């Protein structure tokens, strides 16, 4: 079956939500707590090692029920079934969307075009495990018979952001290999990385789904030239491996068949870290931990597939996001992780969310008449508290925020961790309650200020509060819990795409700039700037003069 094509604004639930919003848009979260002593218990989900508190939102029980009704009316249950069954739900590219299959059990059956893909998935996983173990044990060595010390991941987009984020997030579990990531076509980037490397002990992993991506191939070619200044052509086989669907192009690059890890076109690039694209993750933390990451994600997959919507973490988070985006007009969401390990998490989510749901055409081919997509941004707490939190607390924009925290520290410094978590909890409370005029007045009086000084300062010290947050509290940062967390956001993306009636798994908007860049590169080479607008011509002329 295909995904349903229902304009959400035509449903009775959407219209009821609009009327409900018009009547309740001035709602105060503090008042909701005072009216309902059980609110904190009624608006939470306690699942495995996750505790999700969504009580600090501008929603009532009626809001929540109407949002759940919207999910039913756009046929979300049927869409989830199609998502998991291998149906061609990525219609614009004529593909299934099956990154979830990459983390399922070997005994499961997942059909693509009538063929069970699980044996092939596990064959690649077995190859990854063998390769990882041989590198880590020193059995597989470089061209001078030295063990590997460094791994360089060469890729961009999903071939970089996912692996880089996971490796950074799981630093605590890392082994003796030092990992590097080369993504930007900026030559300064690749050369800065090369300065740190010994060609005799470095393994290069080229990750490109099509093996045609300009940035990746440019960087890979530059690295290979650098390597061949020190080694011979036949030594490339010991130091270069590739992850791709385009086996022939990889072989043309000079990489041996045995050093190619295949992937599949039913895995979108931004959801591909679970495949052989995660080879650098496996090398960095060991295959066992990579496998635990997959198992954690699969646990969230099962929860999302089977749990009732009112207790379904990805569904609930997606519906709350719809509420703010489409009714309150909130354009962005912040993701604040109270763990320095997750300092790349918001960056990773930016691609996953904005590349997926940044669409203006619905599944009927019509231009949408409502907002889709949200701007995603964030940094780790407590750093972000000393940066952009001023805007969230006292700015003019409504910015819903997800707060992610871990109850247990990995290194065990309890004094530090208590301070970290006190900030994690305090910020959501501050955003909820704000600070009233009477509270400010008491504080200023304690400072023995004059009445005129108090009057002048008062407006600047008041906080409105009523700022919405979700608290995602997890027992401990482990490969399993990280897998659950990533999968949770993946499924949130899917739910929003279904409700907005858009195709979340193509990214044609990424292609236009690539095509024009190829054309402009030719113009630079042949000193031609005639075929462009005046602004572009001036930029080209300026560049030519100074290059």
Descriptive key words:
49% helix, Rossmann fold, 5-stranded parallel sheet, 547 residues, 6-stranded mixed sheet, alpha/beta, 10% strand
* Total helical segments: 22
Q: What can be said about the biggest beta sheet? A: 6 strands, mixed
Please give the radius of gyration in angstroms: 26 Å
* Residue share in β-strands: 5-15%
Tell me the name of the CATH homologous superfamily of the largest domain: Glucose-6-phosphate isomerase like protein, domain 1
CATH architecture assignment of the largest domain: 3-Layer(aba) Sandwich
Can you lay out the helices and strands and say which pair or pack?
Layout: H1 12-24, H2 29-35, H3 39-42, E1 44-47, E2 50-53, H4 61-73, H5 76-85, E3 111-112, E4 115-116, H6 118-137, E5 150-154, H7 158-169, E6 178-182, H8 187-194, E7 202-207, H9 214-228, H10 236-239, E8 240-244, H11 247-253, E9 260-262, H12 279-285, H13 287-306, H14 313-328, E10 332-337, H15 345-357, E11 375-377, H16 389-394, E12 401-406, H17 414-433, H18 437-446, H19 451-461, E13 469-474, H20 479-499, H21 508-525, H22 534-546
Parallel strand pairs: 5-6, 5-7, 7-8, 8-9, 10-11, 10-12, 12-13
Antiparallel strand pairs: 1-2, 2-13, 3-4
Helix pairs in contact: 1-4, 4-14, 7-12, 7-15, 12-13, 13-20, 14-20, 15-20, 18-19
């Amino acid at each position: 079956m295909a995904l349903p094509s229902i304009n959400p604004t035509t449903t009775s639930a959407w219209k009821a939500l609009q009327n409900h919003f018009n009547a309740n848009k001035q709602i105060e979260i503090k008042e909701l707590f005072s009216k309902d002593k059980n609110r904190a218990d009624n608006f939470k989900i306690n699942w495995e090692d996750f505790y999700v508190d969504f009580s600090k939102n501008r929603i009532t029980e009626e809001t929540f029920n109407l949002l759940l009704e919207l999910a039913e009316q756009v046929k979300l249950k049927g869409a989830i079934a199609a998502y998991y069954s291998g149906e061609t739900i990525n219609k614009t590219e004529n593909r299934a969307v099956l990154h979830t299959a990459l983390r399922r059990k070997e005994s499961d059956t997942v059909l693509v075009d009538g063929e069970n893909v699980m044996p092939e998935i596990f064959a690649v996983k077995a190859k990854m495990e063998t390769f990882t173990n041989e590198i880590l044990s020193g059995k597989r060595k470089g061209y001078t018979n030295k063990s590997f010390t460094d791994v360089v991941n060469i890729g961009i987009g999903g071939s970089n952001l996912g692996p880089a984020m996971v490796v950074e997030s799981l630093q605590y579990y890392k082994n003796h290999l030092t990992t590097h990531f080369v993504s930007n076509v900026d030559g300064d980037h690749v050369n800065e990385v090369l300065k740190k490397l010994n060609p005799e002990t470095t393994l290069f992993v080229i990750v490109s789904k099509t093996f045609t991506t300009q940035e990746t191939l440019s960087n890979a070619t530059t690295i290979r030239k650098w390597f061949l200044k020190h080694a011979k052509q036949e030594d490339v086989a010991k130091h270069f491996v590739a992850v791709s669907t385009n086996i022939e192009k990889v072989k043309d690059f000079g990489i041996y068949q045995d050093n190619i890890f295949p992937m599949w076109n039913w895995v979108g690039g931004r959801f591909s870290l679970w495949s052989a694209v995660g080879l650098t993750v496996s090398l960095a933390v060991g295959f066992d931990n990579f496998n635990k990451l997959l198992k954690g994600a699969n646990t969230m997959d099962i929860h999302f597939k089977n749990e009732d919507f009112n207790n379904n973490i990805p569904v609930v988070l997606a519906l709350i996001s719809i509420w703010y985006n489409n009714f309150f007009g909130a354009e962005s969401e912040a993701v604040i992780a109270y763990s320095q390990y997750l300092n790349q998490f918001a960056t990773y989510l930016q691609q996953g969310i904005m590349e997926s749901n940044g669409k203006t055409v619905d599944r009927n081919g019509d231009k949408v008449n409502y907002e889709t997509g949200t701007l995603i941004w964030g940094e780790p707490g407590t750093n972000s508290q000393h940066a952009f939190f001023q805007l969230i607390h006292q700015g003019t924009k409504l910015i819903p925020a997800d707060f992610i925290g871990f109850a247990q520290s990995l290194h065990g410094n309890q004094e530090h961790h208590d301070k970290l978590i006190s900030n994690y909890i305090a910020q959501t409370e501050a955003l909820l309650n704000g600070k009233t005029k009477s509270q400010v007045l008491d504080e200023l009086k304690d400072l023995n200020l004059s009445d005129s000084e108090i009057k002048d300062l008062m407006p600047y010290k008041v906080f409105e509060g009523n700022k919405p947050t979700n608290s995602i509290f997890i027992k401990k940062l482990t490969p399993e819990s990280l897998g659950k967390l990533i999968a949770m956001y993946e499924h949130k993306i899917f739910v929003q795409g279904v409700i907005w009636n858009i195709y979340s798994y193509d990214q044609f908007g990424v292609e236009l700039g690539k095509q024009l860049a190829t054309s402009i590169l030719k113009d630079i080479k042949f000193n031609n700037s005639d075929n462009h607008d005046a602004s572009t011509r001036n930029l080209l002329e300026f560049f030519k003069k100074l290059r």
